[in-house]
């Protein structure tokens, strides 16, 4: 691919914050979010497990004592076109109704995909 074809292009980042033990129909909610993102044809999704955080309860969950770690934070990140991400959220309201969802503008370096 020529240097001229490689450029930064606008996109959006969908960030979903939840707890690792948030379930959806007896399965991890983050797994269902990733599965639905793939099935929708979104560019990609990643899940990160946090080491400390708190939510609505204001109770801090931490991994400092690894044997006692529970309810640690999880972050799901999906980057794609803004309209596609908005449509994904709207069509999956049942899955995303009890978590924090944020949409942010980003730029993606295009031209390195294989």
UniProtKB/TrEMBL annotation:
Name by which UniProt lists this protein: DUF190 domain-containing protein
InterPro entries the UniProt entry points to: N-reg_PII-like_a/b, N-reg_PII/ATP_PRibTrfase_C, UPF0166
UniProt family annotation: Belongs to the UPF0166 family.
Species in which this protein is naturally found: Nocardia terrae
Pfam families: DUF190
UniProt lineage: Bacteria, Bacillati, Actinomycetota, Actinomycetes, Mycobacteriales
């Amino acid at each position: 691919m020529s240097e001229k074809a490689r450029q930064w292009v606008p996109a959006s980042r969908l960030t979903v914050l939840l707890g690792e033990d948030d379930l959806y129909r007896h399965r991890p909610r983050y797994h269902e979010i990733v599965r639905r993102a793939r099935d929708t044809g979104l560019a990609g999704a990643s899940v990160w497990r946090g080491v400390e955080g708190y939510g609505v309860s204001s109770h801090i969950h931490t991994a400092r004592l690894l044997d006692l770690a529970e309810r640690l934070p999880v972050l799901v990140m999906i980057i794609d076109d803004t309209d596609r991400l908005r449509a994904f959220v709207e069509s999956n309201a049942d899955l995303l109704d009890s978590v924090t969802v944020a949409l942010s503008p980003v730029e993606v370096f295009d031209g390195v995909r294989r």
